[in-house]
Design brief:
The complex is a heterodimer of chains A (about 350) and B (about 220).
Chain A: E1 2-13, E2 16-28, E3 33-37, H1 44-51, E4 59-64, E5 67-68, H2 74-81, E6 84-88, H3 99-109, H4 114-127, H5 143-155, E7 161-165, H6 173-190, E8 193-198, H7 201-207, E9 210-215, E10 218-224, H8 225-230, H9 235-244, E11 266-275, H10 283-290, E12 294-305, E13 308-318, H11 321-333, E14 336-345
Parallel strand pairs in A: 3-8, 3-9, 6-7, 7-8
Antiparallel strand pairs in A: 1-2, 1-4, 4-5, 9-10, 11-13, 11-14, 12-13
Helix pairs in contact in A: 3-4, 3-5, 4-5, 5-6
Chain B: H1 5-40, H2 50-64, H3 68-74, H4 76-83, H5 89-113, H6 117-125, H7 130-169, H8 171-182, H9 186-214
Helix pairs in contact in B: 1-5, 1-7, 1-8, 2-5, 4-5, 5-7, 6-7, 7-8, 7-9, 8-9
Classes of the chains: A alpha/beta (about 350), B mainly alpha (about 220).
Amino acid sequence: MIDLSHIEKIYDSAAGPVHALKDISLHINKGEIYGIIGLSGAGKSTLVRCINLLERPTKGTVTIEGKNITAMNNSELREARKGIGMIFQHFNLLSTSTVFDNIAFPLQLSNTPKDTINSRVTELLDMVGLSDKADQYPSQLSGGQKQRVGIARALASNPQILLCDEATSALDPQTTKSILQLIKDINRKLKLTVVVITHEMQVIKEICDKVAVIDKGVIAEQGDVLDVFITPQQPITKDFISVLLSNELPVDFRNIEIKDEPFEDSILLMRLTFIGETANDPIISSLVKKYDVSADLFFGSLDDIKGAPFGRLIIGLDGSQDDIHSAMDYLREQKVKMEVIGYVSRHASSHH
Amino acid sequence: MSADMLPLITKALGETVYMVAVSMIISSLLGIPLGVLLHTTSKGQILECLPVNRAVGAIVNAIRSIPFIILMVAIIPLTRLIVGSAIGTTAAMVPLVLASVPFIGRQVETSLREIPYGIVEAAQSMGATPLQIIRKVFLPEAMPNIVAQLTTVVISLIGESAMAGAIGGGGLGDLAIRYGYQRFRPDIMIATVIVLIIMVQIVQFAGNKLAKHLDKR
């Protein structure tokens, strides 16, 4: 659907050339919601603008549905852009036009007959839930409503692709949720391919199928959202995830010694991550029943990533070394990600 | 107050309104596209072309640096060429237009510069041509500001038309100089000034109203 191949972007600035994107290659499948996450200045906005050539890459090719758009002339490119909707952080609506006229704008550009415009805009207003706001001006709307107008406008000419450039970054958390929900709905309903640019892992977690982490102009890591969440490889990815999923130990264990080897009266602290169906399985209780160990729960959280349950536990295993090792073998057989933290004193925790 | 005053003032007012209105229309028709040209050819804009931008900018600056009273006299040959005479109300419009076009150009350029680039980018992402961006984004979005600035231009045209009047263009300025000053008629002088004040007030009021009506921000 969308293929970016060896994209480079170099800007000239007063301080010399700035290498904003370095050899970026991405493949985005049809119907996918693809997230690109990065800190400000990482190059993510430049990257998304390379997809519709609002920024022309210095090197590399952009192919959309088999067509190399980097090789197109201006008028071919304008035609191609009509198949790629885009929404923006600051909405970018025409302040002197009503909601209706804003949504009608792309249709007017292609000289669509008035009747067609009227019915199409009415349909879009209904889709984004703003039928009663048709005659209002953007200044009379809330941020969330403005973004809904932006979405309706982006969809007006029936694009195959929707680019979202920090579309929820100017919105409060509640509104963000409803806008993300809307994007998810239209992705399903219209089989739209969506590219989401954000600096918030929350957005990725909520709606994306795939994610690419961009750092200093290069793709640090990419893959299925669930995989990246469970086994992040790069420090930058871990940082993004830690905002959502704290990796800190429970307060009782923060200031005490954690050893690699067992000692007198020690328990083995470990972090377990359950994904999908296994999050609902009673693994801990079967563990305790099967082996002669006790398991103390120090921390637990249940989250969901794009609808899949995602549970995290910190437990302390107590028992003989043999039993603990068999228990660990058992855990490894389950669909559970196990991460050993180390041995701590049994008395460290106020639970005892 | 004498009986001859009312017809004199009415006639002069008519001439002033005619001079200002026609000059304003012609200046706007030339000045607004000039402003669009100045903005769109500047760096990072949709029709970026720095040589054109610099050349046009230099000409605009050159004309704007000439005081109106000197410009008026300096271009008499040009005025003759265009209207066939250097005297009269119509002849006075040539320097009025020449002075106002660059003024409007700069004002419009400033208004266009205030439009967030994101809106232009959004239009580009929808496949808009540069001409469509000018017609459907730049001009409507800047219109409230342009109206406010054209109001200022009308007011300075009223002042300049009075100067043009003094060298044979007719109108209120001509009346004030010939009767009020040269024939020692303070009543006519005062009446002229009052009429000018009222005119400016009306123009400013109407301009504010219209700009406010157009402004949906």
